[in-house]
Write a structure and sequence with these properties.
The protein is an alpha/beta fold and 229 residues long. It has a domain of 156 residues: 3-Layer(aba) Sandwich (Rossmann fold), CATH 3.40.50. It contains six helices and ten strands; from the N terminus they run E-E-E-H-E-E-H-E-H-H-H-E-H-E-E-E. The strands form two sheets. The chain has a six-stranded mixed β-sheet.
């Protein structure tokens, strides 16, 4: 397994009581798999990603990333593990308007403490591998929505993660671009041996995933992924 949540519970204060947003949730995603988590707004999907991404510690249960049990790790140790093993793709591409596609990736390397010139070739290779050859020096306003999301995915791969956590990657895209992005994620899981957890409302693309989970009121259940169309 590359990422495993076992019996995780997460609560938040709610007036005089508590709201249980994750209710004994267990999830296991192997490298080479794309797993989708569906469910209505407010069901706990974002909280699941926050716990899996080591951004929020559960009240109970364990999170294991690439063989490392994160229980009891210090904040700095969790940050280091997140930086080394995890990649994130958000609902919006969150690209900086003044930077080219290549520079978006180089900024990530810079923030991680790397020397920009040591990462330029990797940035260009990643963008090219995701179908952006010819767009490397374009800024976000010169790219389509699907192209911007591809830049965001490339940026998430700069640290060569074992796990990719993806939050609603197709919410701002049309049907054709949505299918392209989910197909791209499936290809990355299989070809780059990544474990990918994707939260989505986009039920029409689920024939492309390997594993399907449904979340309702903090409870996660495993379903069979639809057969390919």
């Amino acid at each position: 397994m590359s990422i495993t949540l076992h019996d995780t519970v997460l609560t938040y204060p709610d007036g005089d009581g508590v709201l249980r947003v994750l209710d004994h949730v267990s999830l296991a995603v192997r490298r080479g798999e794309l797993a989708a988590v569906t469910g209505p707004s407010g069901s706990g999907k974002s909280s699941l990603l926050a716990v899996a991404g080591l951004l929020t510690a559960p009240d109970f249960g364990t999170v294991t990333v690439n063989g490392t049990d994160t229980t009891g790790l210090s904040r700095s140790q969790r940050t280091a593990l997140r930086r080394e093993q995890l990649g994130f793709v958000f609902q919006q591409s969150n690209l900086l308007a003044s930077l080219t596609a290549v520079d978006q990736l180089l900024m990530t390397a810079h923030l991680r403490g790397g020397r920009v010139r040591d990462h330029r070739d990797r940035a260009r290779d990643l963008l090219t591998s995701l179908g952006l050859d010819g767009h490397l020096d374009k800024r976000p306003h010169q790219l389509s929505g699907g192209q911007r999301q591809r830049v965001a995915i490339a940026r998430s791969l700069m640290n060569d993660p074992s796990v990719l956590l993806v939050d609603e990657p197709t919410s701002a895209l049309d049907e054709a671009r949505s299918r392209e992005i989910v197909g791209l994620l499936a290809g990355l899981a299989h070809e780059r041996d990544l474990a990918i957890v994707m939260v989505t409302h986009d039920l029409a693309r689920l024939d492309l995933v390997d594993e399907l989970y449904e979340m309702h009121s903090g409870v996660l259940t495993h379903s069979s992924a639809p057969a390919p169309a």
